[in-house]
Amino acid sequence: MGYVEINSNVYQEIAYRSICEYLGIQEADKVINFKKGNIVVEKVQSANEDQKEIVRLFISLPAEFNSNFVEFANSIACHVKKSVQEMTGMMVETVNVKISDVLNETIAE
After folding, report:
1. How far is it, in rounded angstroms, from Cα 53 to Cα 44?
2. Are 6 and 53 in contact (CB under 8 A)?
3. Could you give the CA distance from residue 87 to residue 31 in angstroms, rounded to a whole number?
4. For residues 83-103, b (16+ Cβ closer than 10 Å) or e, as one string?
5. Are 39 and 16 spatial neighbours (Cβ–Cβ below 8 Å)?
6. Splitting the chain (109 residues) into consecutive groups of 10 residues, what average pLDDT does each group show?
7. Which of 44, 56, 59, 62 has CA atoms 20 to 30 A from the CA of 92?
């Protein structure tokens, strides 16, 4: 039996759409200057016999002023991890969220 390899940009696209869905926005680029390039994907081969890929995601995005940054980052990380794992079947080891800026306006209009 063969193997399945998923390109990094597929993980990036899933994470991007998951974040947009979570924030309730259609065009993230215009609203919060959040681009797919703000998501870095690192793939590692599992040391186990199954040889599945392990994925690590690094996301940089702004947060709203007067919001709890830790709760915001954790919510984003959980949503992205769940989406990526459900769609790919691969294990997401970590989702690291970096708050890159603070916005005065709300993210979702």
Report:
1. 6
2. yes
3. 26
4. bbeeebebbbeebebebeeee
5. yes
6. 83 93 70 79 78 88 91 96 94 95 70
7. 62
